[in-house]
Design goal:
The complex is a heterodimer of chains A (about 220) and B (about 170). Chain A is an alpha/beta fold and about 220 residues long. Helices cover about 35% and strands about 25% of the residues of chain A. Chain B is of the alpha/beta class and about 170 residues long. The chains are: A alpha/beta (about 220), B alpha/beta (about 170). Chains A and B meet through helix 4 and helix 5 of A and helix 3 and helix 4 of B.
């Protein structure tokens, strides 16, 4: 796929590198000349030294044939306008904005940007959900669906310890995709017996998260 | 009329003064300077001393700051900061989230100005307005600029006679 990444800060740089390694085509737009040169030295000639919030630069970067544009500058207003311009002028089918102030998530949605990533929110989720119940953590939403992946560590004295996956009362639709036992990834099916210390990966509807938690921790 | 002005540079301060003198309720928002040692009024150096409206220190793209400035009962909002993107964001928040009827944003990039005008945000570009006016003045095209220049000279005259508040 073809991605345009607006902003070559730490986030933009590493995101682009990961996309390239995954075999995608990437163009980065970066306004600061020195930063653009630096990233070009590292990643090759895929960097455009231009302002990503200018319509002309987006055209030159090929936003009209891109599968997605990702705006990851440190400035929320800029990310908003970059995404809106790409949608309006280039008809880019998918635009994703980084949101620095979590309050702006709802603002961006109201203004037509459906996909936002807030690093503050992600960190808050990790902190809030990791602390109270030990090893239960919704790791990531499955893009474009209402499902998510959850990682949970089997604790002593909980319902699953020593039981098979088939005997757990997981909500309907939820499934265990794999088990990590002593650092080794194992295939998981209904007959797999869970041990204390196993890390299980559960896929299921985001709405049924609390039921999954109940099935694993009682 | 209740008016919120985001961005109190020369243009914002000038306009706030005009509206205030006409008896409108004006509140101006401008971002806080990094230097906390100075008095609040000093952040609004372009407001005339006679200004009776409200001054709010804060980011005009922040929902809470806009609420504090009275956006919920505003008849009009003008986004006049030096950043096109900030102006467009503040204007869209006012229009789409708070339902402000009259929304005007300064957008100096003509391409962005046109794109957002099509979306229903009233934008104007200093680049094209000033450029067009100067072009007309050079060509002695009286029709384009005369009213504008006469009016702005009159405002300048008023400003020059504002009493100075000594500290």
């Amino acid at each position: 796929m073809y991605f345009v990444v607006a902003g070559a800060g730490e986030v933009g740089f590493h995101l682009s590198q990961a996309l390239l390694e995954a075999g995608h085509e990437v163009t980065i737009i970066e306004a600061d000349r020195r930063r653009a040169n630096f990233v070009q030295d590292k990643l090759g000639s895929i960097v455009m030294n231009a302002a990503a919030d200018e319509g002309r630069a987006q055209m030159e970067a090929g936003c009209s044939r891109a599968d997605a544009l990702v705006a990851v500058t440190g400035d929320d207003a800029k990310n908003l306008v970059i995404c809106q311009l790409a949608k309006l002028n280039c008809h880019t089918p998918r635009v994703i904005a980084r949101v620095n102030n979590p309050k702006n998530e709802i603002v961006f949605k109201t203004l037509g940007i459906d996909e936002t990533i807030s690093s503050t929110r992600v960190l808050m989720n990790v902190i809030e959900q990791e602390l109270p119940s030990g090893g239960f953590m919704p790791i990531m939403p499955l893009a474009g669906t209402d499902n998510e992946m959850i990682e949970a560590e089997i604790a002593p004295g909980t319902p699953p310890a020593g039981k098979t996956i088939g005997s757990l009362s997981l909500p309907s639709g939820a499934l265990v995709g794999g088990v990590l036992r002593r650092g080794k990834l194992m295939h998981a099916d209904d007959d797999t017996k869970l041990e204390v210390g196993d890390r299980v990966f559960v896929f299921g509807a985001t709405a049924s998260e609390s039921e999954v938690r109940k099935a694993l921790f009682g | 009329m209740n008016v919120v002005i985001v961005g109190c540079g020369r243009v914002g301060g000038f306009l706030a003064g005009l509206l205030d003198a006409e008896g409108h309720r004006v509140s101006v928002v401008d971002i806080a300077s990094q230097n906390p040692a100075r008095a609040e009024r000093a952040w609004f150096p372009h407001l005339p001393p006679s200004f009776k409206g409200e001054t709010i220190l804060g980011d005009g793209t922040d929902l809470d700051v806009l609420r504090q400035a009275g956006v919920e009962r505003a008849d009009a909002i003008l986004a006049l900061t030096e950043g096109d993107n900030r102006n467009l964001m503040a204007a869209q928040i006012a229009q789409k989230i708070f339902g402000v009827k009259r929304v005007i944003a300064k957008v100096n990039d003509p391409v962005r100005a046109q794109t957002y005008r099509k979306m229903g945000i009233d934008t104007f570009s200093r680049t094209t307005i000033l450029g067009t006016l100067l072009h007309a003045m050079l060509q002695d095209d009286r029709e384009v600029g005369e009213v504008l220049i006469r009016k702005s000279l009159a405002h300048e005259e008023e400003l020059a006679h504002e009493p100075v508040k000594a500290r």
